[in-house]
Write a structure and sequence with these properties.
Chain lengths: 414, 414
Amino acid sequence: MRAEILAVGSELLTPQRSDTNALYLTERLRELGVEVGARVTVADDPGLLESAFRAALGRADIVIATGGLGPTADDLTREAAAAATGRKLVRDAGILERLEQRFASFGRVMAPNNAQQADLIEGALEIENPNGSAPGQLLEADGRLLVLLPGPPREMKPLFASGVAPRLRERTGAVPLHTLVLRIAALSESDVDARLAPVYREFEGVATTILSQPGQIELHLHARGASEAEALATLERSADALEAALPGRIYSRDGRDLPAVVGDLLVERGARLATAESCTAGLLAARLTDFAGASRFLERGFVTYSNRSKTELLGVPAEIIEAEGAVSGPVARAMAEGARRAAGVEVGVGITGVAGPDGGTPEKPVGLVFVALSGAAGDTLRRRQFPGGRERVRFQATQTALEMLRRGLLGISE
Amino acid sequence: MRAEILAVGSELLTPQRSDTNALYLTERLRELGVEVGARVTVADDPGLLESAFRAALGRADIVIATGGLGPTADDLTREAAAAATGRKLVRDAGILERLEQRFASFGRVMAPNNAQQADLIEGALEIENPNGSAPGQLLEADGRLLVLLPGPPREMKPLFASGVAPRLRERTGAVPLHTLVLRIAALSESDVDARLAPVYREFEGVATTILSQPGQIELHLHARGASEAEALATLERSADALEAALPGRIYSRDGRDLPAVVGDLLVERGARLATAESCTAGLLAARLTDFAGASRFLERGFVTYSNRSKTELLGVPAEIIEAEGAVSGPVARAMAEGARRAAGVEVGVGITGVAGPDGGTPEKPVGLVFVALSGAAGDTLRRRQFPGGRERVRFQATQTALEMLRRGLLGISE
């Protein structure tokens, strides 16, 4: 069962506005076991609107339009929907009377243009609107369900809940869709997909979507089941199969982000952390403290941007900086060790690199980053060459550091 | 001239995600005099996608699709667009070679699934993508312009600017819309609007939009003119009038963000900075180093999350922490002074607060933050009570610190 959502209104096509109705409807429909195949925002133009209704009715089982039901000349939804279904509009005497009463109750006489709000598509049922003047409409035609709802969210939402959801529940038998999110850090989308596609392509009843950003991949698994427990069991089995194809790489199945996973591991292991950052300049510490409770594991952090600060605060020997350069493996190692010792904690991490866009050389190009660990999560060093601009390089450097901490704390080798 | 925007990706039809590309494209198209007639978001489904392309090509002069150009099995945009235009896909040897080189430059062998990114619709021009592996495509067919762009905004935006906008400018011959962005930090939207609305309401030929986020307000001024110089002169006069109504508060007219403005001021004044952060835990240092050249002014930073680190690294007397609490004016002052002295630099800044969601008390509720400066930007202390969650509180704390630095360095009193 597939739905399409049509948002009507030229004002929704300006850069400042976004259509919150569609997000609400997407969430409600998904709970009802209805997938949204497409979401369309259309200007107040009769030809465009009719074409959008035709296209939607041609490919979806359920079409829900919001907006364009008011009294003004650019409220064209009724006409366009009627034209697209080949039906006429019929003025409903009962609705008209209630409209007139509504105006009278505010002590006003109804202006004639309001009467169009009493026009129903031939054969449509009215969905009464207690919070506004334009009622909703619901039409079953050619096996499709066409629903027109007013645009203001405080009118649209109660009409959907009272007039549409119960009918959809009947139609679908309401098998809700469940989702499990798997997260993977510091691998590329193509590497992940090459390893996992052969697995998830074989899934039956589980749909998989891959979302990628630099340094982070998410796999969204969707399934339905006779019960929630059954759907979740199916999702967990699918996740197990993916995990087996990429052992030790899926860092979270429960919605937690990588800094939270690392923070929880540090707390579990009773290990406190000190960070030493050069090119990332505090970004790692800031990410590790994005959530409450970080004082249980982060003791302190050093932003050692200058060479002098690396030597004074972390004891990185000036000769090593001189001989190897500030961006080098030995300096990253000395930073990690220096941070751990200076703070008197169990784990130290050091990051140094060329974030760019300036400062690159043939030997040390922009994007080159060294990350080192010292102490209870192992003494390891990674050299990475990241693509992309400054922001991406810095973010990916912190992802690498976090993934090294996670694997080190769990004792997973490369 | 009417455009339609197609966003491709099932993940964009989940309630959690919204399509920021469409907002960007709507704004750029508007500047080029092109109206957006419809905006469509489509799931990764071959039939739906082809139908959406057909519908869009049937009613718009320009169709721009974003997303679905990657290497995975659910990247279907190329196939669907080709099918909708009745054309074949042709693998481009030059693109394929560059793809392989790109992987080689990261020291990796290209997985075979990446090769589909070298497929062009017959007759389409490639738009080279310097920031990613999938190139854009541009096809003139039956008087329509069809454009395929990658989904990640950092890839899509430069491709639109370099490969699409110039061609649209030729086609439309439109009088472009010019925009000036004014930025204001650490004031509320209602305060700003109360002072500025009486001024901008009188503007003729200049449209004003206010965009607000916690700790930051942007005023977008839009004008057209016979020439770019004329439009810009009109915008600058309008900005002067707004500046006069809110003296010293508009920190940028040239697109620079607050950290960049503060960084440039520090360099101009020859003042080096050391940061000491507790609740923001490196976020201020990370923001100050978001752009290249930060080593000219940032000497070092301290993330003093524990009380012990405040005492050991910054010399904050343990008795003051004991007597006043770690979140207090005297501790913020001692942090700023301690950072400045320890680093041997001209300016120190200290931030301590309750970021929440836990840790609040009746005397020191969540959102309470103290920010102090020491040295060449003045010795000042601010106490602020921020609304909102942890992320908002932390961001606003850094905005306050940056705005204090800016005003201190410029010698503007409160």
